[in-house]
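All the exercises in this workshop are built on plain-text protein records. A record pairs a protein's sequence with a compact description of its fold. Backbone structure tokens are a discrete shorthand for how the chain folds in space. Once this layout is familiar, the rest of the handout is easier to follow. As an example, a complete record with its sequence and its structure tokens follows.
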Amino acid sequence: MSTAENTVETGTDDLQRQMLKLGADARAAATVLAKTPTEAKNRALSEAAKAMRDGAEAILQANATDMTAAEKRDLTPALLDRLLLTEERIEAMANGLDAITELTDPVGDTMAEWDRPNGLRIARVRVPLGVIGIIYESRPNVTADAGALCLKSGNAAILRGGSESFYSSRAIHACLVAGLRAAGLPEGSIQLVPTTDRAAVGMMLTMPQHIDIIVPRGGRGLIERVQNESRVPVIAHLDGNCHVYVDGSADLEMARRISLNAKLRRTGICGASETLLVDRQCAASHLAPLVKDLLDAGCEVRGDGETQGADDRVVAATAADWDTEYLDSIIAVKVVDGVGDAIAHIDHHGSHHTESIIAEDVAAAERFLAEIDSAIVLHNASTQFADGGEFGMGAEIGISTNRLHARGPVGVEQLTSFKYVVHGQGQVRP
């Protein structure tokens, strides 16, 4: 029985056996994928994209089932938007698969090469990580992105989507399996955990013999659980408490466009700004219009005293607001004393995800970009560009806030490690 079809909830023992089989199948597939030619991987992705386009109606029907259940659970509009699939979003997923086929295959790439005085020639060569377990919430498109990126980088994937996107993810996964079959690759290359039982997550975290890396993508609760319980190394995707800082030198019209886009283009993504910081030097001219734009667009503004004074619709901010990832039409706004104060605020309250400075002053911008310790820092651009597709990676598994192995958008290169290949002519060590 394929994992795409098996939706039966099982007992703990049965689930354990099922998960161990997923792991064993993935390990066997990873061995094949590590030496699979680029052409075969690309064919699988192209055929999966075709299956996705041909099967769009089935995907939409599956998504409708998930949406109906989600609405009954009173999820926020932003979370419902994360879950929703449309014809346009399905086409975007298919385009993402096509884009990944165009990426350079990282496997086997020589990263560096040098000769030693003793005649040894040493090369550092990219290799796949092996088996990657991906645990994610809400967004069904992650099923396509994660599966495709793992395949292109020569890794097997075990995907565990959220219960709210269960049927959508199954339908998308079926397209990926169709691509694998068409290319003659093992179906174990991309597997979907076939149950909504949360016990499956715990089992994935304790399968180091079968899973080499865990990538969690979701809310703080999920990330913290994975980091606390996992016996498998973790590439963490923490919450996106992102900031936009409007410097005293900022062009007002640019600041208005960016601030509005960074918050409201899509409020439910991790790159949405959650706090707007405004330099006191331009507050008299910039603060009121920036706040008005947000309020008029339907965004709740929670601000400090000066921000409240700019518009009587502003709600008083609490201490918790500066640390909150709203993922909703809510933003915290504060007046700060220049770029140094903005940096200090972000250092104290941020999640090291994505921050943007709007400034014409080059020195202020360079200081901000140099001193902010976040995975992504931008100058005169919206935080909503925190996306692997926008970085030219085709897609991403997530935005890593780790400092080790991968940081920022996790694409095909970030899903590889390396080994050293050494050529000699009979040398022995004295």
Observations:
- The radius of gyration is 23 Å.
- Residues 1-8 have pLDDT under 50 and may be disordered.
